[in-house]
Design goal:
The chain is an alpha+beta fold and about 400 residues long. It contains 20 helices and nine strands. The protein is globular. InterPro entries: dGTPase-like, HD/PDEase_dom, HD_assoc_2, HD_domain.
Length: about 400
């Protein structure tokens, strides 16, 4: 048994069987992938990595699995799945997720190719686990997947606590121990005792507050848009067949590759990003100012770039100087969590009226951005307003009721 000191959970014990996995190149690579991408441009302390988060997820998964009185094999399965659940992330974590989806055709949860074709395969076999079963856990398709892939999973518990710790914001408070103690195993998967409702609500509140404060902060979104644009231009210059190689790099190698790109646009964007010389918001609007149907149809890289090109043409600026950012629309929280109440299982929504409010809040928090260089802000704003049919914000306090 190896003991690791963690700033969030204290001492973490690592089973001897799992140690070879920690030393695999795929897991060690996570030491060089920032958990929060470019959030350090807003919160200088946010330099923690996917490796730390994976250790924390493994730790909580083990505690929960033992709490559920699972057998030794399922406890090990849960812990290994916690360690490996993020190995599919690209450089700068979620910043490059759209690139992985567009060029490679999978999400970071789809890691079967890594479990069968890399050094991890041998380590998993020595442990005595089935790689396909681990994949089902990570992808949310296993009967026990709710441990690390669910509405109140240990993955969320760890990243909320860890991200709050390193950014210094006071919103990520989660009573992980209470949630774990209140979790039970039902015929349909994991469920929650009614004694854990307040702890569950606290986690969902934390997710809601952390979303605009950290995960969708406009500076982070601008940086992510710049790095996506740089990567697209780089792959246009070098060939899209290099996408897998590029997106398998760590943060440092990826940055150097783009700064030295054959594409002048890619190189300029990445060097500006490294100097924190960022584009500025020209348009930053919510649902009350746009037509939902037109925006939600345009939520991938190709559509974002097409819209950016149209805006640039009307604004009379080079298309490299316009970036369009259309985040995915937030899905409702906690739709699958069931609560044990007087021996019946009921949805958490029925027990907690707070959920509807939180989901409405997440809708209101959603923002679409159009970013450009400071000198082009007015021209780009005018063009974007015309193309996207953006209306003036509604002033609710002046409406007649």
């Amino acid at each position: 048994m190896k003991t690791i000191k963690d700033p969030v959970h204290g001492y973490i014990s690592v089973n001897e069987k799992i140690l070879p996995l920690l030393d695999s190149p795929q897991v060690q690579r996570l030491r060089h992938i920032r958990q929060l991408g470019f959030s350090d441009m807003v919160y200088p302390g946010a330099n923690h990595t996917r490796f730390e988060h994976s250790l924390g997820t493994m730790h909580l998964a083990g505690i929960l699995a033992k709490r559920l009185k699972l057998d030794d094999n399922d406890v090990l399965l849960s812990m290994v799945s916690g360690i490996l659940h993020d190995i599919g992330h690209g450089p700068f974590s979620h910043a490059t997720e759209p690139l992985i989806e567009e060029y490679i055709g999978r999400s970071h949860h789809e890691v079967e190719h890594m479990l069968h074709e890399t050094e991890i395969s041998g380590a998993v076999e020595k442990i005595g686990l089935d790689p396909s079963e681990i994949c089902r856990m990570i992808e949310g398709k296993h009967k026990l997947a709710g441990i690390i892939h669910g509405d109140l999973d240990v993955d969320r518990m760890d990243y909320l606590m860890r991200d709050a710790h390193y950014t210094g914001v006071p919103y990520g408070t989660v009573d992980a121990q209470r949630l774990i103690q209140s979790t039970i195993l039902s015929e349909n998967g994991l469920a929650l005792k009614d004694t854990g409702i307040i702890a569950a609500e606290s986690l969902l509140i934390a997710r809601t507050l952390m979303r605009p404060t950290i995960y969708f902060h406009h500076v982070s979104r601008i940086a992510e848009s710049m790095v996506k644009a740089a990567a697209v231009r780089h792959l246009e210059a070098t060939g899209s067949d290099r996408a897998n190689e590029l997106l398998s790099m760590d943060d440092g190698s990826f940055s150097v590759e783009l700064m030295n790109s054959e594409s002048e646009s890619a190189s300029t964007l990445m060097k500006s990003l490294m100097r924190r010389s960022l584009y500025k918001r020209s348009i930053y609007v919510g649902l009350d100012q746009i037509r939902m149907s037109s925006v939600l149809r345009s939520s991938d890289l190709i559509d974002e770039r097409r819209i950016a090109t149209e805006i640039a043409e009307i604004a009379g600026v080079n298309e490299d100087f316009v970036l369009v950012d259309i985040p995915s629309f937030p899905s409702p929280m906690s739709i699958d969590v069931m609560v044990e109440n007087r021996n019946d299982l009921v949805s958490l929504e029925e027990m907690s009226p707070l959920l509807n409010t939180l989901n409405d809040t997440r809708r209101i928090q959603w923002r679409m951005g159009v970013y450009t260089l400071p000198e082009y802000r007015k021209a780009v704003e005018s063009a974007a307003t015309e193309i996207l049919n953006i209306s003036k914000p509604t002033k609710q306090n002046k409406l007649n009721i």
